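Re: the request from the purification team.
They wanted to know what the chain is likely to look like in 3D before they choose a buffer screen. I agreed to run a prediction and write the result into the notebook, where they can find it.
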Amino acid sequence: PKSGESLELRLERGPSVRGSCIAGAVPMRARVWFEPVTRGEEWYVGAPGFEPRLRGFTRTVEADGLGRFELILPADKDRYRIWAQALDDPSWVATQVLGSADDGFGEVVLELAPREGLRGRITDGGGVPRVPVQLWAHSGRGLGTWSRSFTTEEDGSFSLFDLPEGPFELTILEMPSREELLWMRVDPNSLDLGTIDCTDLRARRARLVGRFADPGEDEGGVEAVDRTRRHRVPVELSGGFFDVTLPAGDWALVRRYGDTLLDLFEVADLRPGEVRDLGELRSDRPATVRLRFLDPTAREPDAFRIVRTAFRGKKRMFLPVAEVPAAGDRDLTLAPGRYVVVREATRRRWALDLLPAELRLLDIE
């Protein structure tokens, strides 16, 4: 507000759920929390309600000696997932999904049972424990998102018991550099990962070096993205020069200008141990796409998604660029290259192959 104006803040207390934690018919002391609906990264550490292990904002309470607890939930949500984990033995876990608070929760009973958890050990050649190493496990989207961040013990071992029902993704990060060592998909039927040798992981990596000819124009940063879009590695520039280590595979260097313009430089078949010099990278003059909506009655419920494509054929990669509401004609500034415009309501698609400095008109009927 402007100086002198009053500001009204309305605080809403979320619904609360009461219940008990038991193991069989025996009350159990446990830690109870709800799965975060708002996520955050490490820089939120210290913020009220932020739990680094869950990578999000939550509330946690401890059940008393009779196993009873009361937990305040976020306001205005349609669904909640709550967890309980025994204080004395973390392998004892329970989870339950609650519906809307409008229907009433009643008395919730969380029955804890022992679980087979994710486990393994990370070493660095010759069986020497590798510490510290950070692991990040995650799955799902929206309200179904599950995320856990944890580190190895002094002997290089790790374990995690509050797991989702289905498969999940696991990323292993070097500390303190946060360099990604390994990404893998974990099946819930194969949770014992055994010994993971970081020396072998490094042997599978490669380096990209080069220089951007116009580093002063960069606004949104540079990142390396693999073909699956699961790996996204920030690329630091020093006077336009870069030197980044990546796992072998197909990559694209993505350079952002504001919200929509993307430069994308394809790096195919990066091999283990290779040092790939890309030389001097230059940006082409941007193109303009003008979306013209010919049917004004269809504008209100529609939205459009712009996707950049790379790597033709089986190696094709789709990188979201912008989302456009259908509210009048729109001009989009994009780097030359291949794009797909997707109409969300009908899933109709338009393919674009933009040339430098081109003005392309796209009529939407």
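For the purification team: The radius of gyration is 25 Å.
Please add any questions underneath this entry.
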